[in-house]
Design goal:
5 strands; single chain; two-stranded antiparallel sheet; about 20% helix; about 20% strand; about 90 residues; alpha+beta
């Protein structure tokens, strides 16, 4: 089920960590821009940890899975490498 995702209008890079940065970091590790692209490709919402709402598991485009911890995974050195898209 592959549909064309809405294309972003712009992209910025964050200066400091936030929950939104953590969210996009996890999607980008799995090969997606963000949740919008993930939903358009997979047709489902990602599994999340009930305690804090962070993403628990993502399926990559090749069918393999990424599993994430309950705690922050985006280290300070990775924050400026993360892309934040605007629509």
């Amino acid at each position: 089920m592959t549909t064309i995702a809405e294309q972003p209008k712009g992209m910025t890079r964050p200066k400091q960590w936030s929950q939104e940065v953590e969210e996009n970091y996890r999607f980008q590790l799995a090969g997606y821009r963000d949740e919008i692209e993930y939903k358009s490709v997979k047709g489902e919402t990602p599994n999340r940890w009930p305690e804090n709402g962070y993403i628990k598991k993502l399926q990559r485009k090749d069918g393999l899975f990424y599993y994430f911890n309950r705690t922050r995974e985006c280290e300070d050195k990775d924050v400026p490498r993360t892309k934040m898209y605007t629509y």
